[in-house]
Amino acid sequence: MTEETTDRHVRVVLVDDHRMFRTGVQAEIGQTESTGVEVVGEAADVDQAITVITATRPEVVLLDVHLPGGGGVEVLRRSAAMMAAAENPVRFLALSVSDAAEDVIGVIRGGARGYVTKTITGTDLVDSIFRVQDGDAVFSPRLAGFVLDAFASTDAPPVDEDMDRLTQREREVLRLIARGYAYKEIAKQLFISVKTVESHVSAVLRKLQLSNRHELTRWATARRLV
């Protein structure tokens, strides 16, 4: 970042479950005198995000898509009432490693003003933050055309409220279960414990209101997730 001072100022909350990434972003953009960005809070999961956003009322939230507790879509959902009632609404800019269609479209439909990937430079990220603060829609160059095409096309992925309830890890476990993997095989492939796999499966069954593995497999097959 340059050392020039700026008259502009924006208060930002960082929401990402990787502490080292938050630290890196803070170091890159959080030099308030030169960037105009003041990082007023951080959060690592959905519950923390809601608590911090409510307490600090930032202008912009940098929001990761994949978070413990329901993901970025859940943060947007739970923040919706607060944003609608606020005199100066909180605006959300998704900042993610993912450029998957379901992630991009999910958070934009959820209310985010933009979506940039983690390959973005610090300078461009600061610019994107201020543009979102001003009410602009901001996307990484590679995603802009894709988003426009997706929303204009009749082939755009439909809203799937059931899928939106699942975290990214729960979706991964769901797909592997539907493909016939045993719990031990899933644990090995995802580098997690069997107990954690069991917890994810229970959460998926509860959220989708299904009773057993057979119903889960049929549900996933119907949505071509297998």
UniProtKB/TrEMBL annotation:
Residue ranges of every copy of the Response regulatory domain listed in the record: 11-133
Q: Does the keyword DNA-binding apply?
A: yes
User: Which GO molecular function terms does the record list?
Assistant: DNA binding
By its UniProt entry, which CDD domains does this protein fall under? LuxR_C_like, REC_NarL-like
Which PROSITE patterns does UniProt cross-reference here?
HTH_LUXR_1, HTH_LUXR_2, RESPONSE_REGULATORY
Q: Which UniProt keywords apply?
A: DNA-binding, Phosphoprotein
The record's InterPro entries line, in alphabetical order, gives: CheY-like_superfamily (IPR011006), NreC/VraR/RcsB-like_REC (IPR058245), Sig_transdc_resp-reg_C-effctor (IPR016032), Sig_transdc_resp-reg_receiver (IPR001789), Tscrpt_reg_LuxR_C (IPR000792), WalR-like (IPR039420)
Instruction: Tell me which Gene3D superfamilies the record gives.
Output: 3.40.50.2300
Q: Which residues carry this modification: 4-aspartylphosphate?
A: D64
**In this protein, which residues make up the domain named HTH luxR-type?**
159-224
* SUPFAM superfamilies in UniProt: C-terminal effector domain of the bipartite response regulators (SSF46894), CheY-like (SSF52172)
Per its UniProt record, what SMART domains does this chain match?
Answer: HTH_LUXR (SM00421), REC (SM00448)
Keyword field contains DNA-binding: yes
Q: What is the designated name of this protein?
A: DNA-binding response regulator
The record lists the organism as Streptomyces violascens
Its lineage reads:
Bacteria, Bacillati, Actinomycetota, Actinomycetes, Kitasatosporales
